[in-house]
Amino acid sequence: MHPIIWEKKGLVISPRRAPVWRATHSGMVSVLPWESAAYRVFLTGRDAHGRYQIGWLDLDQDFEVVHENPENPVLVAGRMGCFDSQGLCMPSVVRVTDSVLYMYYVGWAPALPGTIANNCGLAISRDNGATWERWSEAPLPLRDAQDPIGIGTVFVLREPDKVWQMWYTSYRNWELLSDGTWRHFYHIKYAESDDGIHWRKPPDNIAVDFVDESEYAVARPVVLREPDGYRMWFCTRSAGSTYRIGYTESADGRQWTRALSGIEPSLTGWDSEMIEYAYVLKHDDGYVMFYNGNGNGATGTGVARGFATEDAE
Questions:
Q1: pLDDT, tens digit (0-9, with 9 covering 90-100), for 16-60
Q2: Considering the domain boundaries, does residue 220 fall inside one?
Q3: pLDDT-based confidence at 312, cuts 50/70/90?
Q4: Most buried residue among 38, 110, 220, 229 by CB atoms closer than 10 A?
């Protein structure tokens, strides 16, 4: 597949002067093309009390906010004791019918200090994304002998008359470091489904593993199906570094080969320290990437436009 050249367009969603529910962080988005606006953005917000919640807003063709749902947030933390009682984030929204949308999200519960206990939840909208309700107070049945520790961010690709495909973040292990803190190790795996709820996993389902011994976080997959294969963008982090946006390609969605992402932190400004949580979709004759900058959404969400070119190397 031809490499994509990215051109940054700047910050488009900021927590500055934002509604209280996303006053400190605005990001970790999932985006759909929308009839009444160019893009419907489902995003994670964090308020001054540290609560992570999910809402939505609309952007026009120039990435200007034209409407923010006055009922935000549409999804808040679950009841005490539930898998998402401490917060939720990272929506991944899939259209099922003209009126039904599925939202996969990460929820977490109390855990050992310095660690987190993540699971994947599902919320369903039957009014084209205006309101949402949980499929269950329990997480999706994804944790098992193959993935016993935790499930993080997921991406689900649904094509009509085809099996649902999921690429998901699986916690491999936690390691106690010499300074007494814990480090998570997670990578990306693959599963399939006939209904988007009950998933089956191939025996050897690791899709994107660590590239070397220093890398310990490979997460938040976003996948596009192209005529000649699949493209995936993901988060990657190595010891001594902050998050970066990684990229890989596949002929079948199962075996992946890494390549350069073509996008790096800026020299100064809102995305100069880290770039992560990319969400990419096709638009017109190119691509649009939404991504977070410094502080995992503390500075907000920006946009880059991309074009595939035979001359890009």
A1: 999 999 999 999 999 999 988 899 999 999 999 999 999 999 999
A2: yes
A3: very low
A4: 220
195-220, pLDDT tens digit by residue? 999 999 999 999 999 999 999 999 99
CA-closest candidate to residue 235, choices 250, 253, 248: 248
DSSP label at residue 139: P
Contact 219, 234 (CB under 8 A): yes
> Token pair for residue 239?
């010891």
Asked if residue 54 lies in contact with residue 40, where contact means CB atoms within 8 angstroms, the answer is: no
pLDDT value of residue 311: 46
Distance of alpha carbon 235 from alpha carbon 262, whole angstroms: 14
Cβ neighbours around 213 below 10 Å, total: 8
Q: What residues have CB less than 8 Å from 63, skipping those under 6 apart?
A: 9, 12, 38, 39, 303
Q: How far is CA 119 from the centre of its chain?
A: 14
By the 8 A CB rule, do 120 and 154 touch? Answer: yes
Distance CA 246, CA 259 (A): 8
Residue 3 lies in a domain: no
Containing domain of residue 208, as a range? 17-279
What is the gyration radius of the CA atoms in the chain, in angstroms? 18
Report if residue 7 sits inside a domain. no
How many CB atoms sit inside 10 A of residue 113's CB?
7
Exposed, middle or buried by CB within 10 Å (0-12, 13-18, 19+), for 39? Answer: buried
- CATH number of the domain to which 246 belongs: 2.115.10.20
pLDDT tens digits, one per residue of 174-201 = 999 999 999 999 999 999 999 999 999 9
- CA 39, CA 159: separation in Å to the nearest integer? 20
In a domain, 305, yes or no: no
Q: Residue written as tokens 């009509």?
A: 160
Hunting for tokens 């369903």 — which residue is that? 124
CA dist., res. 311 & res. 309, Å (int): 5
Domains identified in the chain, total number: 1
